[in-house]
Design a protein that fits this description.
Layout (H helix, E strand, L loop, with lengths): L15 H9 L5 H13 L3 H6 L5 E2 L2 E4 L8 E4 L18 H14 L9 H13 L4 H8 L4 H10 L2 H10 L1
Antiparallel strand pairs: 1-2, 2-3
Helix pairs in contact: 2-5, 5-6, 5-7, 6-7
Length: about 170
């Protein structure tokens, strides 16, 4: 007898309007602001955010010396990043604390309760694809070894299909 596979859900990514609402709820919590900005603006994983150091910032990118699978990569410095945020690094809280902070501010902003800190990374990937970034570059930015992993975002961002349909039919 075959066991039934659990259905794969599309990633739930924070949209631009939701991002603005989320940030508006952060008042004096620099740790939350910096960590959310790194995840949403550069696609970093929560563990990478926690390990991020000032010296990882290079010209226009952030060097990640060891990602999930021990692979080095460079991600973009988020738009809106200010050098005044650098003293916050390294972030001196646990992954669990960042997850709790995200849930707290997410609830205050009225975001989807199914969102998690990882939804910031999903939002980054979805935005890249929606704005026409080739999937192989999105794969590189996210640090995925297999393009099929990145491919889930093409299902989550069907705007290209709709746009192509409108242009061709």
């Amino acid at each position: 007898m075959k066991t039934q596979q659990k259905p794969r859900r599309l990633p739930k990514g924070v949209r631009t309007d939701e991002w603005e609402r989320l940030v508006s709820k952060i008042k004096d919590d620099k740790i939350a602001l910096v960590s959310f900005l790194l995840a949403y603006g550069s696609g970093m994983r929560i563990s990478e955010v926690c390990r991020c150091r000032k010296e990882h910032f290079r010209d226009k990118g952030i060097f990640i010396p060891s990602s999930k699978y021990g692979v080095e990569r460079v991600v973009p410095i988020p738009k809106g990043w200010r050098s005044s945020l650098l003293p916050t690094l390294p972030i001196k809280v646990t992954i669990r604390t960042l997850q709790r902070k995200f849930k707290l501010y997410s609830k205050r902003a009225g975001l989807n309760p199914a969102y998690s800190f990882h939804s910031l990374r999903h939002g980054f990937a979805t935005r890249l694809l929606e704005n026409g970034t080739p999937i192989n570059l999105v794969q590189l930015a996210l640090g995925h070894a297999d393009i099929s992993t990145t491919g889930i975002y093409t299902k989550a961002a069907p705007t290209d299909l709709l746009k192509a349909y409108e242009e061709n039919f």
